[in-house]
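Q: Sequence in, structure out?
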Amino acid sequence: MIKISQKLKDKLWWLIIAVDYDYSRITIADHDLTEDVLTLWLEDKHDFKNTLDECLQVDIPLKQFAKIIKDESFNSYEGSKMHPTKNYLYKDSIEINAPIRWYQDDASLYEQQYTRDTVLKLLLTQLIETQTLGEDMVLY
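A: Exactly. Output:
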């Protein structure tokens, strides 16, 4: 669960207003992954910024980023496994790698970009849903 500060909520709302509530105009200008956090810099596709300082910076804790990868099943696939002692096949989710290791080592550039875009969509969806319900900003 991510708690988003009121200041960041306000900035996200200003970005949403600036794009005339057309969420598809919000894009990730750049990103950075450190040991602790995934940083996304957001901007309007119709108003590109010259520097990252002009973009909206959003920090997602690495633990939450890993949870999103796991919840969305990006690091696994549906497959068949053989039961170790009873010798029958069953369908199960097969993990390719731990979420962050999958993102760094196994995911293609397209998969990495898709994962970051999913994080952005989840963030915006949660912002809209919690603000209309009047709840605290929490990203699941």
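The mean pLDDT is 86.
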